[in-house]
Amino acid sequence: MPTSARLMAAICFGLLGLAFAYTATAYFEEARQPSYWFPLNGGIGVLVGWIFAGTRAGKGVSSGVSNGITTAVAMLFWVFFLMSFSDMISKSMRHAYDGPVEAVVGVFEIMGDYAVQFACMDLGIVMVVGAVVCGLLVEFVAKRWS
User: Fold this and answer.
1) The domain containing residue 54 runs over which residues?
2) Over 90: is that where the pLDDT of 19 sits?
3) How many whole angstroms separate alpha carbon 101 and alpha carbon 79?
4) How many domains does the chain have?
């Protein structure tokens, strides 16, 4: 059921996803991100905000902060997973894997590579500060208009 907290969570985490995408652009090889980079981050941010943060809003300030951080971690997981899955499909079309099990394992290896590639201080600060601010905004909206 749509609520004002869910709408606010979708907007906030969609913007946080776009902020992460913009900041992370410099960490791709030759600063060339995939063409789906910005829509993927924004879309995943909207979905995760609506599903995760919006449903758990309204339980207090400390719960709002932890809700924001949890949602940001879930957002990063899904972004890295979908990018890794896309890369695995590309590699499997070039016959880089011997079988389907090796391809599934390859997804998680690529996810680890992306996690190491994006483990930078400025990205961490953007995500932590943005997650706390988003969590608090969602909590405020849930208390105010629900």
Assistant:
1) 3-145
2) yes
3) 22
4) 1
